[in-house]
Amino acid sequence: MLALRLTRAARPAVQLRRLLVVAASAGTGFLLLCALGHALAHPAGAGGSALRLAWCAAPLAATVYLALAVARTDPGTRPRGGLFAAGLGPGRLRAVSAATTAASCALGSLLALLLFLLLRGDLTGRPAAGPAAGALAVGLPLPLPAVLTLLALVPAAASASVALSLRPREAARTAPTAGTGRRYGRFGAYGLAARETFGAYGRFGARRATARAAASGRAGAGTPGAATAATPSGTTAAASGQSGDGTSGHTPGATAAIPTPGATATALGEAALVPALADGAAPVASPGSRPATGSLPWGVAVLAAGLAMETTLADRSGGTSAGVLSGWALTALGLALAGPGLTHLCGRLLQAVRPGAVRLLAGRVLMAEAQRIGRPLGVVCAVASAAYAAASAHGADAASFGPLRTLGAVLVAGCAVATLLTTAVEAKQARAAATAALLRLGAPAGVLRGAAVLRAAVLPAVFGPLTLAVAQLAALPLARS
Q1: Which tens digit of pLDDT belongs to each residue from 268-322?
Q2: Which of 118-127, 172-181, 211-220, 427-436 has the lowest mean pLDDT?
Q3: Are 310 and 331 in contact (CB under 8 A)?
Q4: From residue 448, how far is each of 323, 355, 401 by CA, in Å?
Q5: More confident residue, 78 or 43
Q6: CA–CA gap between residue 295 and residue 341 (Å, rounded)
Q7: Which of 61-70, 87-96, 257-266, 425-434 has the lowest mean pLDDT?
Q8: Listed residue (55, 24, 135, 105) closest to 410, CA to CA
Q9: Which helix (H) or strand (E) holds 301?
Q10: β-strand 180-182 against 192-194: which pairing, if any?
């Protein structure tokens, strides 16, 4: 009941994303029912029917991936203080999100069943005629357990993926290093502190060493590198000629950036933004997240294995669909694994060779969001390369695709693009606090827009040639066969 109330009270944008999940689930359910109908109409061709059912794995995976991305951006299932007070913790909110996803996918499955029965003529008495009529099993009874099993695949897989992905995670604790021990205080408090032996404070010179360490810390606070924090007027502490302890004076090698009356607000905002970005005001990855570049070698290895498998199986079997399907599956997995690492490297590339405020901000955002948007980018590259390879292999004989293959291709491509756009919305929501902090620091809105445009330009420049290269390599065995 709570899931239905949250669904009804959602905003139009959230409802639109859920309708996309319903449409994707309906398309996938219809393809599964068509595979069942082909098996009923052609009992002798069990291999072809099994291959049709195997090809439905790609739309099923794309639908589940889209449902997971939509569930992550749902604002109604986020932890809030009022919900915690009402007894809705992270576990129950995860259950509500899984129930909402299951309801959307179940609605799509019902629509698929209704369309399938309508085309069969069970509701109107007039079956549809055309190339897809052989997959409808017109005039044959449908086994109810098989229909229910196939229609329950999408809701069960989507809800299980949402429940597993949205489970609460704790930040990874730092392992204690040598010379550090656990500090015990009030009940339930824990932490790390420097280990002291018995009587260390009373030894000769211990107090002097502590005083020297404190004095060096105060002196470090007055150096020019530490005095470059942004002030509300957009100037720095070094520009005012004041040291860290409040006395006037100039440090050798330090330049005084005195604003002139004709200085614009943009220049002042950028001057305040660069030290803030260097000090960590820009969004960074969470401490508990895994490094984005860790999966790049694995992605490259899986991608190479997928291309090699596709070439080998296509040469041995004459370009059959089994070899193409297994090769493309590994290729898509490799691109999805390599996507976060490539996105992280794009951020590194933007910050190379004396970056300004715009490049620094764009690079740091890409590095922080590499794990989030890298995988959808890799999936889009895999879908684009598969579409290019299939189009180049068939050439002018586009009619050989058929309506069901066209539906499957459109469904996979649409889910991949919708997942990427939904992940972009999630990334924008995640960095809303960092954007507000940068605006409070004096960053002009033009700098933020320029950083967004730069991020949108560098990603296609890196992923576009990669997609084209993978597509050319994937199309070679298909062209020979």
Answers
A1: 344 445 554 544 444 544 434 556 778 889 999 999 998 888 888 766 655 556 6
A2: 172-181
A3: yes
A4: 47, 15, 45
A5: 43
A6: 7
A7: 257-266
A8: 24
A9: helix 296-317
A10: antiparallel
Residue 409 phi/psi, 5-degree rounding, is -65, -45
Amino acid identity of residue 205, one-letter, is G
Instruction: Report, as an integer, the average pLDDT of 5-32.
Output: 85
| Contact present, 171 and 286 (Cβ < 8 Å) | yes
Q: Give the C-alpha separation, 323 to 331, whole Å.
A: 12
Residue with tokens 């500090």: 183
The larger pLDDT score, comparing residue 67 to residue 432, is at 67
| DSSP state at residue 203 | S
Q: How far apart, in whole angstroms, are the C-alpha atoms of residue 18 and residue 105?
A: 9
Q: Is 392 exposed, middle or buried (0-12, 13-18, 19+ CB in 10 A)?
A: middle
Kindly state the tokens that stand for 214.
């404190």
What's this model's pTM, rounded to 2 decimal places?
0.72
For 186, the token pair is 């009030």
Express each pLDDT in 440-467 by its tens digit: 888 888 888 998 899 999 999 999 999 9
Of the candidates 57, 32, 35, 55, the one whose C-alpha atom is nearest the C-alpha of residue 45 is 35
Structure tokens at 43: 């009992």
481: which 2 tokens?
Answer: 């066969």
Q: What mean pLDDT comes out for the span 325-341?
A: 89
Q: What is the DSSP string of 172-196?
A: PPPPP-TTEEE---STT---EEE--
